[in-house]
Amino acid sequence: MKLPEKTSTPADKSIITAQSLAGQREAAAERRARYPFRFPVDRRQLGGKFTVKENSRRLLRFFYLERRLMHGLGSWALGIPDYEVKLETGRHIFYHADAARALRERLSEQEMRPPAVDGHRDAEVDRFIDELLSAESAAELLVGVHQVLGRAIATTYRHHIDDTDQVTDVPTIRCLRRILTDYEPMLAWADEAVDAYIAGGVEEAKLSTWRWHITRLLASIGGVTGADPRGEAPTPLRIDAKPYERGTVPNRDSRFDTFIHTGDYDTADAAARFDKHSYEAIRLRFIRTQRDEVDAIEAFGTFIWDIRFKDFNAEYDLARITWDEARHTEIGHRAMLASGYDPYELRNRLTSSTCRGPMEPAFAMAEINLFGEVGVLKTINDLIDTAASRNDELLRHISDYIRADERTHVRKGTRILEIMTKLDAKALELRTRELFTECLVSLGAIKKDIDMKTLTREEIEHLVGE
Q1: Which end of the chain has fewer beta carbons closer than 10 Å to its terminal beta carbon, N or C?
Q2: Is 246 strand, coil or helix?
């Protein structure tokens, strides 16, 4: 019996050689030659550094960092004094929330259910974030959040795009590229803002010391991915001496002339510019109210921190509302300019934030949602109609957009309140009215009287001024 001839075995036993049938390759070449169209060649190749498991591990770390940045910036919303920085931070809160949402969705496509993603915790990242938030000034906050962590995240995302499989992992690549479209202007703005702080007298050496401290701390936890070589953590950490807590007092920069004793602008100004019931007075009050929604940035940002980890969708909705309120603040500021005012000549109302800052989130949220935003919707339709009849295109235009936002906020706010409290609507409203009555008495907005009863919804709308 004749044995079969031995054939050579490839050195790499994983290689399976192609077996073409007679004439097929030649026929394929002829068909390609006859095909008339020469489309661009897709030069992407199979192969990448990550398995699905490793890819998911990294994406989960990215998600957690973005979520914690959303929380952390929200916790600073009250404490930032500078108008432009507070406004921009309102935007950045949402940019990080939206990045977390996109990463969460991608993780769900890699066999991680949303509850598992949402339930993820990382103690070393939490410790890093708490130290980051222990900045002594808004300038230090920008250095740590943007110039250290933000820049490292952006670099890591770009490296991940380059290193992952360019064909099989296209959804991750697209996800990270879309996130980077927000990071690029955010980091560029932060660099200019830090330069402005230094030019205005903030000590550059102190900022550099903080930058080095946070850079070393990030390296000690393996960087953004957690997989980089780890160095020694710097000592001492500020959080070891004093655990991080969010602020409760609203801050404004020195350009603002502020008041807390009333929600009424004429009372605060000690004079009336127009007859109280005139269109001109109502118009100016609406524009001032929009500029003063800088306090709404503070409110919704703070709520994100206060309900952190209770429900991701509620956090996300709060972040989106925070972004909207940043736009409303801009709208009011620019409408003041378009109406011929220097925005800083018009006093800024701090009444709302002063009351809400120390308050439990459910009651603070109820005030701004059930009283403030619902109150706006009661009157804004008539305002738009009157503006149109007077050919006041500026007010008609801005109030039309604000109405659409406020309708959305009221709808989303109902679900957020369900996350914040188990109280029924009646009990929640009553307790909110009681707390705001107490606060307004303490501020001198109303006089304490032995016969005084809890303020009505309408009275709170007027006295808080939203």
Answers
A1: N
A2: coil
